[in-house]
């Protein structure tokens, strides 16, 4: 059975939440309705005329694209011009279009992490930071007899993750007091009588995005009619994400060797290179697509080489001045690997959630540049 478009949107936004996108970007469902039924899904880097023609021919219901088909404000739709023709074809065929752009660049498992994986880089970290996860401290007071049940519930809901450790909590014992008033149904004590109870103060760290889930799990197992708890934001932050990555090679290479490594990893025949070929490469920065604006950040991060696309002449000069090598592997080649990764991710979602959706990868798109 087909699924609603919203089901696929939800899966995409678990991978690449919209809040990660840059403020100037345009991501999400750009064409179509969340309620329409989807049986055939196509994943592509760009919604070109060739891709749309193929989608119409194959009966595709939804396209997921990296580059938004609608980016700047549209004041008119001219059906005699390329964009108008593409939009008309999509609307006539009732094909929804969803874009995951800079949010997919930034996301864990997105464009830049795929590049890191392709190049076999180790200990990769964000090259820039545009998002830092907010952390909250949850403190709950619970009778000592039920402390372990509450601890287990909040930990299994995701609270208490610190680095490579889970189930991190702290507890201390004390005496709680309360006076049940008329109409109360206390778990312990009687109405009109002050009750003193041996309680535990249980505290842990909770990322903002799962606060609601953790509180729900806590309230479900807590025995009290009225649960006393505090939730307050911390000054320290959690997981940080941003555009680009910087990591290390398993073993040093000369730039001339590393160039061949990049070409083989990305399946391309040539690259543009800035810097001496005898340079020793140990630390590598990457940014899929147009990342030349981060050359200085890559140099500041200690990278020996920066891999991206769309590098201009004066940006290359800046790289030389900063002492960092640059490999311009092309916009298409540095982003295209995410298409297959998205297909694998959504196929796994389909299997787990039992979607009846045929998921395919665009086979007509190709790099617009040719080496002659």
H/E element order: EHEEEHEHEHHEEHEEHEEHEEHEHEHHE
Measured as a percent range, the helix fraction is 25-40%
- Main sheet: which strands, in order across? 7-12-14-15-16-13
Main beta sheet: strand number and arrangement?
6 strands, mixed
Radius of gyration over C-alpha positions, nearest whole angstrom:
26 Å
- Tell me what portion of residues adopts beta-strand conformation: 25-35%
Give the strand tally.
17
Structural class determined from secondary elements: alpha/beta
Mean pLDDT: 95
Globally, the shape reads globular
What features would you describe in this structure?
The model has no long low-confidence stretch (mean pLDDT 95). This protein has a six-stranded mixed sheet with strand order 7-12-14-15-16-13. The longest helix is centred in the last third of the chain and has 17 residues, at 337-353. Helix 2 (49-58) packs parallel to helix 3 and helix 6 (147-156) runs antiparallel to helix 7. It has helices at residues 5-15, 49-58, 82-92, 102-106, 111-118, 147-156, 211-221, 255-266, 295-300, 313-322, 331-335, 337-353; strands spanning 3-4, 28-31, 37-38, 40-44, 62-65, 96-99, 122-126, 131-143, 169-178, 195-207, 229-241, 245-254, 272-274, 280-290, 305-309, 325-328, 358-361. It is 31% helix and 30% strand. Helix 2 (49-58) links the parallel strand 4 (40-44) and strand 5 (62-65). It has 372 residues and is α/β, with parallel strands linked by helices. It is built from twelve helices and 17 strands.
């Amino acid at each position: 059975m087909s699924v609603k478009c919203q089901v696929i949107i939800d899966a995409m936004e678990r991978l690449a939440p919209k809040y990660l996108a840059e403020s100037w970007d345009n991501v999400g469902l750009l064409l179509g309705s969340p309620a329409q039924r989807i049986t055939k899904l196509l994943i592509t880097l760009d919604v070109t005329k060739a891709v749309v023609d193929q989608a119409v021919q194959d009966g595709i219901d939804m396209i997921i694209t990296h580059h938004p088909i609608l980016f700047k404000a549209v004041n008119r739709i001219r059906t005699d011009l390329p964009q108008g023709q593409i939009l008309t074809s999509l609307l006539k065929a009732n094909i929804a279009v969803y874009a995951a752009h800079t949010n997919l660049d930034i996301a864990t498992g997105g464009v830049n992490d795929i590049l890191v994986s392709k190049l076999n880089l180790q200990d990769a970290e964000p090259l820039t930071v545009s998002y830092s996860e907010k952390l909250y401290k949850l403190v709950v007071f619970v009778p000592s007899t039920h402390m372990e049940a509450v601890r287990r519930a909040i930990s299994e809901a995701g609270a208490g993750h610190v680095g490579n450790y889970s189930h991190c909590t702290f507890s201390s014992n004390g005496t709680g007091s309360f006076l049940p008033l008329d109409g109360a149904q206390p778990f312990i004590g009687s109405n009109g009588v002050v009750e003193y109870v041996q309680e535990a103060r249980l505290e842990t760290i909770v990322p903002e995005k799962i606060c609601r889930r953790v509180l729900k799990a806590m309230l479900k197992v807590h025995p009290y009619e009225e649960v006393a708890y505090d939730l307050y934001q911390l000054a320290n932050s959690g997981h940080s994400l941003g555009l680009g990555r910087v990591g290390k090679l398993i073993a040093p290479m000369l730039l001339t060797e590393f160039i061949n490594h990049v070409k083989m990893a990305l399946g391309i025949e040539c690259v543009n290179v800035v810097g001496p070929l005898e340079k020793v490469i140990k630390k590598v920065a990457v940014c899929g697509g147009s990342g030349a604006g981060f050359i200085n950040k890559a140099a500041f991060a200690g990278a020996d080489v920066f891999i991206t696309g769309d590098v201009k002449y004066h940006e290359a000069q800046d790289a030389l001045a900063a002492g960092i090598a640059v490999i311009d592997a092309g916009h298409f080649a540095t982003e295209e690997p995410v298409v297959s990764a998205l297909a694998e991710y959504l196929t796994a979602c389909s299997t787990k959630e039992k979607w009846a959706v045929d998921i395919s990868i665009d086979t007509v798109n190709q790099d617009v540049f040719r080496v002659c």
